[in-house]
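A quick word before the example. In earlier lectures we treated sequence and structure as two separate objects. From today on, think of them as two lines of the same record. Here is LysR family transcriptional regulator written that way.
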Amino acid sequence: MTELARSLTSPKSLLVFEAAARHGSFTRAAKDFNISQPSISRNIAQLEQDIGQPLFVRGGGGAHLTDAGRLLFAATTDGLGRISEAVDTLRAQSMSSDSEVVLSLSNAFVTNWLVSRLAALSEAFPQAVLRFDLVPGTRTSVAGEVDLATLITDAAPHGIVLAPEVIVPVCSPEYLAAHGGALSPEPAGGWAGHTFLHLSDHPRTIWDPILGASSKARGEATWHGFSDYAAIIQAATDGAGIALGWLNVVADSLRSGRLVPAWQGRWIDTGRVVQLLSTRPGPMRPVAREIAQWLCERMAEDLNAAARLGAGPETLRGPAAECVTQREDSVE
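And the structure line, produced from the sequence above:
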């Protein structure tokens, strides 16, 4: 390409030549470039001088290509055609990138909370093409560049707070009914006959605020371990046992009655928060911020409903989360 630039006075002359050859007319080529016909003639004359051969035979019937002109026209048509295709491809990729919103979220959160709202989300943001990167286990950091990701962190004004980290013991209504309709945190008969569904990423001591610290109490029960939290919630919904339900994941199931609190008024408030963060360089994209706000508003409705059911603290006072905070820079 450097050699070509040195061979020609102006690479623009190739574009002018291609248009004149395609139309068979200097006048029509001039209209394409919105310049005068004499300017087209000067560009062609300069190109002929650079090449050292005439490219057109001028006459009353228009401009006709010489043998040299036909050779150059074939080369410029092929080259410019390939350039045009590349430009179109890059533009399409740019448009796709502009409209694509990458959401890196917990598999359990998407399966149990977001999927039922996906149609409403798509209707609210018809211009957005959503791409979900699902995380099966406990996330400790966010890899790559994504528009929105959930991460449990200490309470701090970074990103957008989706919900407080509140953990509620949950089970199906059928499981509750099979065990007398109301479970006690300290059943007289001990924990024999009960099944607990445990996320293997966590130590069993995470249950201590609910069950107490007695190893005997835990040993009397049946424990099933899972590496995927979405599977735990599905098993609890199917009546297989009691699970620890992160409120931002199970709030919709509690509201609908698919799950119920295993013990009324018993939950763990860790003091941490579930945040929506952007890891792209620079400020959060407007469409990502709007989607995050939409998610926060829907989540606030469910958290308020869960609090009325005795399945979480009354931390929200309005239709939208008052704890939502935003910052303009991205999270490194």
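Notice the following. The chain has two domains: 2-98, 100-308. We will return to this example when we discuss secondary structure assignment.
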